[in-house]
Amino acid sequence: MGEPKNQAPFDIRMIVRTIVLFVAWINHYLVMKGNSPIPINDAELELGATALITFVISMWAWWKNNDVSFKARRNTQYLKDKGIK
Would you list the DSSP string of 51-82? Predict the structure, then answer.
């Protein structure tokens, strides 16, 4: 039982975007629970800034073409191999 021979690798930029997205959501959750991961005195400013950061990063991660499924990674790898992408 081995790995499929034509398995396409994950794109490192997709992994970084996903990690940044999760960090933003964890930060937003901590602020909602009253913890202060970013030391700002004004709670409303902190909540607004965190919500804005979370929204921007969420839209960024959503907008990008993330090749998460095997089929999408395989197709992207095929295009790279042919010099199209």
Answer: HHHHHHHHHHHHHS----SHHHHHHHHHHHHT
